[in-house]
User: Fold ABC transporter ATP-binding protein from Rossellomorea vietnamensis.
Amino acid sequence: MSILETKNLSITFGGHTAVDNVTFSVPDKEFKSIIGPNGAGKTTLFNLLSGQLKPSSGDVYLKGKKITRLSPTKRARLGIGRSFQMTNVFPNLTVLENVRLAVQSKQGIRYVMHRNINAFSDVLSESHELLKLVMLSNKADSLAVNLAHGEKRKLEIAMLLALDTEILLLDEPTAGMSLEEVPQILEVIHAIKSQGTKTIVLIEHKMDMIMDLSDSIMVLFNGRLLADDHPKEIMKNEQVQSAYLGGLYDEHTA
Ligand SMILES: Nc1ncnc2c1ncn2[C@@H]1O[C@H](COP(=O)(O)OP(=O)(O)OP(=O)(O)O)[C@@H](O)[C@H]1O
Assistant:
């Protein structure tokens, strides 16, 4: 069964079609990656899935139900979680406090009627578990503002996981990281995948990085869906090769 789907999804900004008639579906619990050169429309497509943008035409479906016009908050409640950017993180609170707020916000949404005296310690232990999962326990008491770049991305992932949504949209989780930081984040993503409880859609520039992780890879080019297939097929795809190897791929951001 597909959990997330789009049909003929398009958005135009002042004459430029950033996402052009994209139809795809993500089966439940699948790991799908989206690749494509700069400006291909990857982030715009994410914004359409999460509700930050509304399409010019076409629709988005969650478990077969049309959600095209729903707000990001409503979509999060229904199960679509988008990776936090540092703009959503309180810089002068500690790492642990930030994660705790995210855990509490989920509980506020879902369990407001079931408060009990153990709620606080539950929240705290869940927050510690999440920090352990993203390998950030040693920074629990650091202010978020003082984290290194890679550590900030781990905090964002912990906060996304705290919301416990069925679908995780991860926008270039390794962007701007040092070579030493990338394997750690990959390990975190592997760990989340191997729990087998989430559907994951991930945007990535570095094709080699996501070959092993992905059940399928979608290639966007000039807003259009160029291919959507198993990683091995994508590697063999001539159109993809020429898009990537024909000088159109912006190496310096890879
Ligand atoms: N709000 C906006 N207003 C006008 N143009 C926009 C807007 N958002 C995106 N675009 C344009 O849409 C196109 C797709 O941008 P988008 O950021 O989705 O690409 P991307 O594949 O995520 O690129 P990158 O890998 O560089 O992040 C670009 O040409 C961009 O300039």
Residues 247-254 have pLDDT under 50 and may be disordered. The two ends are 33 Å apart (CA to CA). The chain is about 35% helix and 25% strand.
